[in-house]
Amino acid sequence: MEWYLKVLKNYVGFQGRARRKEYWMYLLINQIIIFILATIEYFADIDPYLKGIYYLATLLPALGVSLRRLHDTGKSGWWLLVALIPIVGIIVLIIFFCQSSQDGENKYGPNPKTA
């Protein structure tokens, strides 16, 4: 939960680098919350406003951590636009997000593992 809160506190931080653990833990907790909200909406028989509000509230933090994760692998944040290519774009991003951190300091800042 600490990784999730760390991303939310740095919700418009598009500079720097994010470790794999930070990115994947944020994604995991985010998906758990979405599942809980979807379950509540289903059993309470309400419109999907809860998920919509949650998506909007976490849009900037999700973009921020994704950009920082790309920075950690030495790639520009513009690589997020590859997601617009159906199927292949998402696969490419998943591969980038799974890559190890670039050793040492890169143009986006110091390695968060050693900082």
TrEMBL record:
Transmembrane segments: 23-40, 77-97
Name of this chain's protein: DUF805 domain-containing protein
Keywords (A to Z) from UniProt: Membrane, Transmembrane, Transmembrane helix
InterPro entries: DUF805
Organismal lineage: Bacteria, Bacillati, Bacillota, Bacilli, Bacillales
One Gene Ontology cellular component annotation held by this UniProt entry: plasma membrane
Native source species: Falsibacillus albus
Signal peptide: none
Keyword Transmembrane: yes
Pfam families in UniProt: DUF805
